[in-house]
Write a structure and sequence with these properties.
The complex is a heterodimer of chains A (468) and B (263).
Chain A: E1 7-8, E2 21-24, H1 29-42, E3 46-49, E4 65-68, E5 75-79, E6 84-87, H2 93-100, E7 105-106, H3 118-124, H4 131-134, E8 141-147, E9 153-156, H5 162-168, E10 177-184, E11 186-187, E12 192-200, H6 203-213, E13 219-224, E14 236-243, H7 252-255, E15 266-267, E16 271-272, H8 276-280, H9 286-300, E17 304-309, H10 310-314, E18 332-340, H11 344-357, E19 364-370, E20 383-391, H12 397-413, E21 417-418, H13 428-435, H14 437-450, H15 459-465
Parallel strand pairs in A: 2-4, 3-4
Antiparallel strand pairs in A: 1-2, 5-6, 6-10, 7-11, 8-9, 8-10, 12-14, 12-17, 13-14, 13-19, 15-16, 18-20, 18-21, 19-20
Helix pairs in contact in A: 11-12
Chain B: E1 19-23, H1 28-39, E2 43-48, H2 51-65, E3 70-74, H3 83-94, E4 99-102, H4 117-145, E5 149-153, H5 166-186, E6 192-198, H6 204-208, H7 219-231, E7 236-239, H8 243-251, H9 255-258
Parallel strand pairs in B: 1-2, 1-4, 2-3, 4-5, 5-6, 6-7
Helix pairs in contact in B: 1-7, 4-5
Classes of the chains: A alpha+beta (468), B alpha/beta (263).
Chain lengths: 468, 263
């Protein structure tokens, strides 16, 4: 039942946005239906929230109802013979990989943090460092069940209710709420990956390296030094990794054990990582971070090969717990753009130069190789993505806002796209331009069919689609 | 599907905004605070009884700001039962709630030597029971969210019972004590409660006042003091400031003297 003491202050992942809501924690589909009914009776709207790991307002619903899905976190069925898993939407990637890995399986697509939930991953249709090969997570979903705001329960697969399948995955939780998800895991023959690291000296080399080498590897990702310009603009380091096969790993039973996967809580066995972010704080300014970037680049000049556990390779964001707090009170925002391979270099050259010229450098740049997919609100292109982190302060907000508008224009003119789990400032006109009026009309038609009373709404939905 | 256009410009990390609710916003200090908070970038829900004045104030604020910063909600604070639904709607429209100002107040001086139960009852209903109706659920929300700010416009008149207007004194003394109790409940939950005790402010209410009204200030000056106190998250302020010292003296006048005074 509705009560004012459910009012809870919620934030985005970057701690740069706050929106309180009445929080309910459903345990089953019936309780989600009850929340829909309550919303109808009170005139409030509903948003599902997984782990709250979106960088923007995707899981916020200021003044409305938020369903904390972490109460629906059971792995319902796991078949280690076929690698098929059926789970509730609040199951995290951490739960999932720890469940399947000891038996020689790994989630085919994971995000940079293992704390995301399956429901959230599907709603945003996340990608990993293997997007060019494996596509987004949605391509590995065999079937899902969802409850619609009408109270109807639907089952969708690429064959059954295909239009809903391809729209609800990537649909930002605005058509219905997942109640169970069936996915295919990927067979692995070792708990380790063979990782290669190379330096790249400028943006052209950076992108052509990703392009040329992606076909030879299972995973590829670039780190970009975004604080140094001139001739070395876009320099950085590429990491590419392959699964180990056959007898490349002499003792796969051992490397697949959980204790050999779990990230160590201490550095050198002594220093607790939980307070590491406090030591990053003094460097989280333009000068200090430029030094950090330069040092990191110099350290990366050595080309080398090493073996690393799956967890250590994938969940870079979890390596320093609470790293996002190092950005201070204003928090951080992420700006990720996806550009076709033909236009990426010119557009990002312009973007990076602009950010350095305006004294608003990004603190972190991450590049990936992508391919298109069939999902309705897709962000993927045949090309690359560049994710940039910006520190937000009271003094830089207005300047940063203007700059990101300039970035949007550059990306759109270059035929690029954006990712709804990341960018926080995307305007309705921008979304219309990269998604196309037809896609938006189709999304709105499905929305009308699944949610005729407009019960499912997030702050993101109102911001981007409210006026369309 | 009712595609809901956001009522206010969307809040983003680079365009954040605070959400404010002012009860009793159509004139006087409430209106001055509305103008002030809008200027500071707040999104505001303005609650008042008088529809036309409220609409005019919202229009003025929104035109000056060049975007929607204030929305009107017509409501009589003595319609206690309507409060929960209206509050829920307001918080949903604002997309949150950071600060609440209870500025509703009436004053019906009975005249020297007279008693006026109807007037006293109305003063208590608007000045105190209306505050219970609004601030109880708001306190519950803020306590649960572990943040927020409650501002109550009480009065120096609540510091002592005087010969002129027993009902008004009692209503404001009640409000002051209620706010103090809320503060004691909520501070430990990260919520700030600010009691404002204005002296004489040039409002409609003051026109009804009998007797001398020295050291008058404009509602804008009072709003300025209140906004600064809100930013500093103070517990209590007098506006203008010297009433703090004046009332310190007045509060300590012994009854044996005070009951002989015509003040």
């Amino acid at each position: 039942m509705f009560s004012f003491n459910r009012f809870t202050s919620l934030e985005n992942f970057g701690h740069s946005l706050r929106a309180p809501a009445y929080v309910f924690k459903p345990k089953c589909a019936e309780e989600i239906a009850e929340a829909f009914q309550l919303a109808k009776n009170t005139g409030l709207t509903v948003t599902a929230r997984g782990a709250g790991r979106s960088y923007n307002d995707a899981s916020l619903n200021g003044g409305g109802i938020v369903l904390d899905m972490s109460g629906m976190n059971k792995i319902i069925n796991w078949d280690p013979v076929t690698g098929q898993v059926r789970a509730e939407p609040g199951v995290t990637l951490q739960q999932l990989w720890q469940h399947v890995e000891p038996q020689g399986w790994w989630p085919p697509v994971v995000s940079g943090t293992m704390f995301t939930t399956l429901g959230g991953c599907l709603a945003a249709n996340i990608h990993g460092k293997n997007n060019f090969k494996m596509g987004p997570i949605g391509e590995h979903v065999l079937e899902f069940a969802a409850i619609l705001p009408t109270g109807a329960e639907v089952t969708c697969s690429p064959k059954k209710n295909a239009d809903l399948f391809y729209a609800m995955i990537s649909g930002l939780g605005m058509l219905g709420i997942f109640t169970s998800i069936t996915m295919q895991m990927k067979r692995v023959e070792s708990g380790l990956l063979e990782v290669h690291a190379w330096p790249v000296h400028d943006l052209r080399e950076h992108l052509s390296f990703l392009f040329d080498n992606a076909p030879n590897y299972d995973y590829i990702v670039g780190w970009m030094d975004t604080m140094n310009g001139g001739k070395s603009l876009g320099r950085g380091q590429i990491h590419a990794a392959n699964y180990l096969h056959g007898n490349e790993d002499p003792n796969p039973q051992k490397t697949m054990q959980l204790q050999n996967q779990i990230l160590p809580p201490r550095i050198f066995g002594v220093f607790p990582k939980s307070i590491l972010y406090l030591f990053m704080k003094p460097f989280a300014n333009n000068l200090g971070w430029r030094g950090v970037n330069t040092a990191k680049y110099i350290a990366s000049l050595r080309q080398h090969t090493f073996r690393q556990s799956h967890a250590a390779f994938h969940f870079l964001l979890d390596y320093v717990p609470n790293w996002e707090l190092a950005y201070g009170r204003g928090g951080l925002i992420q700006y990720q753009s996806f550009l076709p391979k033909e236009t990426a270099e010119a557009a990002w050259t312009e973007i990076l130069r602009l950010s350095l010229k305006r004294g608003l450098p990004s603190y972190l740049g991450v590049t990936k190789r992508h391919r298109p997919d069939k999902f309705l609100l897709t962000h993927a292109v045949d090309g690359f993505s560049l994710a940039l982190d910006f520190k937000v302060t009271n003094d830089n907000r207005a300047k940063l806002s203007t700059m990101l508008q300039d970035f949007d224009r550059i990306v759109l003119d270059a035929g690029g796209r954006f990712y709804f789990a990341k960018n926080s400032e995307t305007a309705p006109e921008t979304a219309t331009r990269f998604l196309g009026a037809e896609t938006i009309a189709k999304f709105k038609r499905l929305k009308k069919r699944c949610d005729p009373n407009g019960i499912l709404e997030s702050d993101l939905y109102r911001r981007v689609f409210g006026e369309l | 599907m009712p595609s809901k256009k956001p009522l206010f410009p969307p809040a983003t990390p680079l365009n954040p905004r605070l959400c404010g609710l002012i009860i009793g916003a159509s004139s006087g200090m409430g209106a001055a605070l509305a103008r002030r908070l809008a200027r500071e970038g707040y999104a505001l829900a303005l609650v008042a009884r008088r529809k036309k004045m409220l609409a005019a104030l919202c229009d003025e604020i929104n035109q000056t700001s060049g975007e929607t910063r204030a929305l009107p909600y017509v409501h009589d604070v003595t319609e206690y039962d309507a409060v929960p639904n209206l509050l829920r709607r307001i918080v949903s429209d604002l997309g949150g709630l950071d600060a609440v100002i209870y500025a509703a107040g009436v004053n019906f001086p009975p005249g020297p030597g007279n008693y006026n139960f109807d007037g006293d009852r109305q003063m208590l209903e608007v000045n105190l029971i209306g505050a219970f109706a609004w601030l109880n659920p708001i306190a519950e929300m803020f306590q649960s969210a572990k943040r927020g700010q409650i501002v109550g416009i009480s009065s120096v008149a609540g510091d002592r019972g005087r010969v002129g207007n027993p009902g008004y004194n009692a209503s404001k003394a009640g409000l002051t004590t209620y706010l103090e109790a809320l503060r004691n409940r909520l501070t430990r939950h990260g919520v700030n409660v600010l009691t404002v005790k204005p002296g004489f402010v040039e409002t409609e209410m003051l026109k009804a006042a009998q007797g001398p009204t020295p050291f008058k200030i404009t509602p804008e000056k009072a709003a300025d003091d209140i906004y600064k106190a809100m930013r500093a998250r103070k517990q209590q302020i007098y506006t203008p400031w010297f009433w703090k010292w004046a009332m310190l003296i007045i509060r300590n006048i012994p009854s044996i003297v005070f009951r002989r005074m015509n003040f």
